[in-house]
Amino acid sequence: MEPTVVDAATSLKETQLADWLRERYSVLIGYSGGVDSTYLAVLAREVLGRDNVFAVLGRSASVPAAQSESARAIAIERDIALRVVETSELSDERYAANPVNRCYFCKSTLWQTLVPLARELGVETILDGTNADDVFEYRPGARAGSEHDIQSPLALVGLTKSEIRVLSRARGLATWSQPSAPCLASRIPYGTAVTSERLGQVERAEQALRDLGISGNLRVRHHGDLARIELEPAVLDQWLDDSNARRLAAVVRAAGFARVAIDLRGFRSGSLNVLEGVVAA
Amino acid sequence: MTRLEPHLRDTGLECRVEVRDRLAILIPGKGGDEGHLSAEQRRLILQVAKSEGFTHVAVELDPVGAALSGG
Question: B-chain residues within 8 Å CB-CB of A245?
Fold first, then answer.
């Protein structure tokens, strides 16, 4: 179970983070509206003030529209200056070919867009929401960040995902319990081209499942004609029930898949990395 | 036919298995008894599939309007 109280060690890390931010006059944040970048943007806004914090949301077919809208709503609620930029990673053939280091090309596109924007705004420091747990995961996009001198202060002070959730909750941020939301391309197996059509199928299917009332972690993995649904193990019984299973199948078929299957182990972060042997099972 | 099919049959589960690399897709047959896989059945299936080298197992939902029949 996730802790709900900010302990002394976590509080100290937040103080260190605030001090680190204070030493920067202004920052631009690669913002997604997820748990990490939202917490970072809100704290930066508190420490540096509205005029010195710019949250920049990259919008493309690989980001669900609902996520972009949620990110925008949070920025308005917290009085954070938000910029929305269109990113064009799909037009990069190296990204669209979907190699195992696809994230590198996506992040390169993002930072190549944000670096000149920061310069234009007179901001020297660009931040991302990488946390201390991320450092140990397979994340080829991190190299793009290093190449563009992107700073990751959450990881720098050692804040883990669960600590960021606790701190977010203490600040009244609704994101504290939000599931992780990697881009939609993560649902497409490596080597299968990332296209707007496939991303659209996944986005519609996942939204349809949310509309059925499924909360928590949820993924629709794209296997060509077949959608493989991953749900939290705790709800598998409920959705494998015959009538519910038919409802699942119907809405996912309507999203553009001919066949629908449900994974018997349930949700696994980086599931396709395991399936394709990129990381150990 | 993959070896997974007879292994699953030994556990009381009748289904076809479609193999996509390390993903096994279990396809229920027509006319199966109504009902769904219990947590214990799922655990057993995953265990058997893992021993055959599969990292992922999924059951197709409502492929021809039939349910998966478990033992």
Answer: 36, 61-62, 67
User: How many angstroms separate the CA atoms of A268 and A26, rounded?
Assistant: 37
Which residue of chain A has the CA closest to B38?
A237
pLDDT tops 80 at residue B43: yes
Q: How confident is the model at residue A204 (pLDDT cuts 50, 70, 90)?
A: very high
Give me the residue spans of the domains in chain A.
Answer: 8-176, 184-275
Q: Calculate the average pLDDT of chain A.
A: 93
CA distance A222 to chain B (A): 12
CA distance A142 to chain B (A): 27
User: Which residue type occupies B57?
Assistant: V
Task: Flag if A226 and B35 touch (Cβ within 8 Å).
Answer: no
Residue A125: half-sphere exposure toward Cβ, Cα within 13 Å: 17
Distance CA A68, CA A72 (A): 6
Put simply, whether the predicted model's pTM sits higher than 0.95 gets the answer no
ipTM: 0.87
What does CATH list as the number for A8-176?
3.40.50.620
* C-beta of residue B16 within 8 angstroms of C-beta of residue B27: yes
Pick the CATH number of A184-275 from 3.40.50, 3.30.70, 3.20.20, 1.20.58: 3.30.70
What ranges make up the beta strands (E) of chain A?
Answer: 27-31, 53-59, 81-86, 125-127, 218-223, 226-231, 259-263
Q: Give me the residue label for tokens 């394709």.
A: A276
> Total domain count for chain B?
1
The set of residues, in sequence order, having a beta carbon less than 8 Å from that of A106 and lying 6+ positions away, is: A62, A87, A89, A95, A141, A144, A183, A185
Neighbours of A9 (CB within 10 A): 9
Q: What residues are paired with B27 via a beta bridge? A: B16
- Cα–Cα distance between A130 and A142 in angstroms, integer? 9
B24 vs A: CB within 8 A: no
Chain A and chain B share a number of CB contacts under 8 A equal to 71
**Does any domain span residue B27?**
yes
